Amino acid sequence: MRSVFREDHHMFREMARRFIENEIVPHLPEWEHAGIVPKSVWRKAGEVGLLCSTVPEEYGGAGGDFGHSAVMIEELARVNATAIGFTTHSEIVAPYIVAYGSEEQKQRWLPKMVSGEMIGVIAMSEPGIGSDLRSMRTSARVDGDDYVINGQKTFITNGGNADLMVTATKLDPGAKELTLICVEADRQGFSKGKLLEKIGLKGQDTSELFFDEVRVPAANRLGEENKGFSYLTHQLAWERTIIGLRAAASIEALLEDTLAYVRERKVFGKPVFDFQNTRFKLAECKAQATMLRVFVDDCLAKAMRGELSAEVGAMCKLLGSEMQGRVLDELLQLHGGYGFMSEYKISRAWVDARVARIYGGTSEIMKEIISRSL
């Protein structure tokens, strides 16, 4: 029994699971082939209240907490719906606007994000800079009451569908300080590159974004000038815990799938489960999954109380993503040759899980953050 959730969280889970099973799961193969999810799905999710659940009621949201966020993250992970970019939109972009946006910005953008009419992205990564955000080259110069933005972003989740970009820029190209500016997709000079081909996350519309003399009003700046880096890092503990939550839910779901498979699949005249090696492997996976679940739920409880630290968030991501890679590899092995076939969920989940050790800060960066607290 998990004690971190309340009754309203359980009710929200029932609604989320029903929507995902009916509106998402049947279409995942089609979306993974197309490389993008139709915007109509976002609007349907918005209509039933599954987007931006933590946004306050005065801006159209449900005024929920991280527990509601975790429910949606876990339910998507349970079916390996990696094509769906709801989490970036709801748990990263919207909270930036809630935390640092002006009242006018909140009224202008948040209701549309809650309804699914506007899809948000965080435009941070750039070609060649990796985790070194302070070396980014995208610039914004002041021109009267406007900013004029030039630069390029890459690996942008929801990039193909993006309507609003929270864009990290530099006012002084030689400086290290960042400024966040919100850019609407219909601004002149803004364009999207082709969808990037990836080894996993096939249905996720990851793309490059280009800014060529894009003019936006100063009213689109998010928070204060030269405070962008602190804004970005302030949210990172929760963003990294999201990856740990997803990993734990993925391991649990794939473990159940594998148990069903090995009980049904017969080799040498008996179920694969009857071999001691299979039972020992699964026992080890179960023990690891249980240990991760306890830790991840503790991290979630800390986040709900406002007590989640940067190093604990980094631990959650590091342990979750690394364990997900190891355990899914063991579960795939138990499927034999069928584990290598894309029609089996384990194969797709195994490939999709690889990026968890990279995005949100690499495992090496997580170790560096944790080491600073030693």
Structure description:
Residues 7-117 form the Acyl-CoA dehydrogenase/oxidase N-terminal domain. Belongs to the acyl-CoA dehydrogenase family. The model has no long low-confidence stretch (mean pLDDT 97). The protein is α+β, with helices and mostly antiparallel strands and 374 residues long. Helix 5 (86-100) packs antiparallel against helix 6 and helix 10 packs antiparallel against helix 12 (363-371). The protein has helices spanning 7-24, 28-34, 39-47, 66-78, 86-100, 103-115, 228-234, 236-264, 276-305, 310-334, 345-353, 363-371; strands at residues 120-123, 139-143, 146-156, 164-169, 179-184, 190-195, 207-217, 221-222, 266-267, 270-271. The strands form three sheets. Strands 1-4-5-8 form a four-stranded mixed sheet, with helices on one face. Strands 2-3-7-6 form a four-stranded antiparallel sheet, with no helix packed on it. The radius of gyration is 21 Å and the shape is globular.
